[in-house]
Write a structure and sequence with these properties.
The protein is about 40% helix and about 20% strand. With about 160 residues, it is α+β, with helices and mostly antiparallel strands. The protein folds into 2 domains: about 50 residues, Arc Repressor Mutant, subunit A; about 80 residues, 2-Layer Sandwich (Alpha-Beta Plaits), CATH 3.30.70.920. Strands 2-3-1-4 form a 4-stranded antiparallel β-sheet. A hairpin with a 6-residue loop joins strand 2 and strand 3. It is elongated. The two termini are about 20 Å apart.
Length: about 160
Amino acid sequence: MPNTYQTQTLDELDKSILSILQRDGRISNADLARRISLSQPATHARLRRLEERGYIDSYVALLDREQVGFDMLCFVRVSLKRHQIEHVEQFRAAVQKMPEVMECHFVTGDFDYLLKVVVRNRKELERFLVRKLTPAPGVARVYTNLVLSEVKSTTTLPLE
């Protein structure tokens, strides 16, 4: 993960490259070079430098979850019984093994963790909550919110 100094050293061309790649990770080096008005070798060198410095974490295909059968998107708030480091680590290790959990965030407020969870249907949600999440080490309470519709969902960071 880049530090503050590295973030400050991004010039406008670097930001343009990153913005374009966020929208189209499959763009060819030639097309990218044309879009930023730079030679292909110079564009390639900048791209490699951005990768090496950790600005680019990975290249992925983002799937439409509903098209592949995951109709239910949920946000699950979890409170732990105890906050000793071994309990926290056990919970985090358990969550890492749950493929239904797309994101897990340690947060401030009335609960400890916020999970973004996808399942195919109500039965899968019940199975996930009853058999996987609730029995996970250290879990005291679980609160589930079902998403009725996604108003905005993006992976694009506002660089400009």
